[in-house]
Design brief:
With 143 residues, this protein is an alpha+beta fold. Strands 1, 2, 3, 4, 5, 6 and 7 form a seven-stranded mixed beta sheet that branches. It is globular, with a radius of gyration of 16 Å.
Length: 143
Amino acid sequence: MDLQELIDRAEITDAITRYTLAVDDGDFDALDTVFTPDAHIDYTESGGVVDSYPVVKAWLAEALPGFSQHRVHLVGQVAVDFAGTRDEADVTAYFHNPMRIADGRGGERVVEVGGRYRHTFVRTTDGWRSRRLHEQVVWTRGF
């Protein structure tokens, strides 16, 4: 592994962190630093939408605040597999996402989703960006 590969891996991991912070904080415009404008995103396994980045970004901004104001992502292992010229990488990041939601009786409860974010990252003039995201749900709890 050479120095450039280490830098690329760090930049990709930083992009995944920006993604989770943007979603958890409700700063959906910050997702512009994570995705390419033509990215394809698939949240169907968690009950969401599948569409182009602009459509999914608008959906997130509308749907997530109504679902939960209290979100936190924990990201574990990040596997990066570079392809060809090393300007593209298949990336898998394990996640655990607990959220507090209303319980329908005036209180709150915790729900959780665990799985893998499967990205295709590409090197752009603005740095590494995800061109494709598939949220693979492995388990849920509390729903």
